[in-house]
Amino acid sequence: MNPVDGPDSEPRPTRRSIWSREAWPRRLFRIGRRSVYLVLAVIVGLGAYLNQVGIPESLKNRLLETLQQRGVAMEFERIRFRATRGIVAEQVTLGRLGDLGGEQFSAQEVQLALDWGTVLALKPEVRGLKIRGGAVSIPLVESNRVASRFNLHGVEARIRFEGAEEWVVEDLRAATEVGSFRASGILKHPTALRSAPDSAPAQASPAWRSTLLRIQRTLEEIHFQTPAEVRLQFQTDLALPEASSAEFTLSAGQVTWNERSFQRLKLEAQMRPLTEAPKQLAVHVQWEVDGVSAREGSVRGLRGQLKSTQPIDAVLPAWVDWNLSAEEVETPQFLVGRVQVEGRSEHLASNAIPVRPWDPRNETVVTKGPAPQFRSSLKLHLHELKTLAPEVRLNEAAVQMVLGHDLVGWHEAQLEVRAPGFQSPGLDCGPLELSLMGHPQGPGPGPEDASFWRWIRPLEITGSLEAREVNHPLLLLDRIKTRLRYD
To answer: Is 126 within a domain?
Structure first.
């Protein structure tokens, strides 16, 4: 008791802050923090488990089933989750294993792009693939055996799935034996590639494989001194091949082929469906070469193009049109200021006809059964022809040749030459026309001759020669016409 203030008052309760240790906000915050730590620990632990052990079998089977529905049959050594890239399959193999007649694809890693909305609904769907370290091997079959393989390595690709029957190849990059390769496009109905497990390999090579085999063999003969760049854009329907289209580009700095050197080569090819003819494709090829040099001479400014119609179910085209032009052609014997060449080849009815092989030293043969026959024509236009002797000069000439042949050899040839005139020290001539027809001689071996005459001796030749304004030091003729025969 205080004598001054009177009796002591009752002690007042102390007021605690809401942020004190025992207050409910602090307790709630601690509970929330521990819950977050627990969730993070679960996530880290689950991620470590999925990364080290792999994803559950049920999820793995669901993903494989989704890929199979989109035409992708995939086998792998391991599939796991990676924090930065999602679900990744390692050491992947696609294709028909153990089948030498099928395409083979392998990759170090294939990343699966998932639709996470369907993942949360426990129905995961694969929306695309990202391939790293891939390799592609396509067998090229001939006579029921694998004659060669077309290979790509170092494949990096992004593929997006649009529904179950369409792949969108956004970007595919790879390396080949000739240089870099880059492709993009759309592939429809990829499930058409699937075959039954017990199906046997195809006994015949499809047309596209045969075409690729010819290209592969040509590329094996070509030496690219500087790496080439190859680009491909495509839109392919495997269920309807005649609706496919593609654009192909190849460019190289310097190329050597058959002892000939090509400088700055560029080739472009387009393929599209032919609307007026079912099950056929229209092919258009263009090429440019700045210069060609060889032992026989050199060519400057070479340009050309080719147009053809290719049936889907055939190896050989129905017809081919092509043309070539050069700014200058120089050989040790002559110099031509400008050259233009046009040609056409048509596929005729099959027949059994005696043919002389392309090498005249071989024996004339008759095919055992009907073989595809062709009729090919060639037109050659020369301008400003000069020889080593400056007195010999031909300002212009036109040469036309028609050839009946098959793949083994030929059986009929026609040659026509027209020129407005030429000059030489011993003879001047006005308009000139020469017409010849040749057939191979009867069965028997050709001559063992390495000279030019080996092409003439096995022939039977008939024709005619007509010339006007013939001027010779001992003779002057207004017109001369004669028949020719050689056998």
So the answer is: yes
β 260-273/179-188 pair status: unpaired
Per-residue tokens: 324:
């070539």
Number of domains the chain is built from: 2
89 and 229 share a domain?
A: yes
Flag whether 409 is in a domain: yes
464: number of CA atoms within 13 Å, CB side? 6
pLDDT at 288 over 90: yes
225 and 371 within one domain: no
pLDDT tens digit sequence for 167-201? 899 999 999 888 899 999 998 887 765 544 444 44
Q: How confident is the model at residue 258 (pLDDT cuts 50, 70, 90)?
A: confident
471, two tokens: 């001027």
Q: Which residues contact 407 (CB under 8 A, 6 or more apart)?
A: 371, 372
Domain coverage including residue 342: 333-487
**Identity of the amino acid at 10:** E
Please name which of 104, 231, 105 lies closest in space to residue 180, comparing C-alpha atoms. Answer: 231
- The pTM score is 0.69
Q: Express each pLDDT in 194-252 by its tens digit.
A: 544 444 444 344 556 666 777 777 777 888 888 889 999 999 887 887 788 889 999 99
CB 301 within 8 A of CB 328: yes
Residue 258's SS3 state is coil
Q: How far apart are CA 87 and CA 67, in angstroms?
A: 14
Asked if residues 120 and 141 have their Cβ atoms less than 8 Å apart, the reply is: no
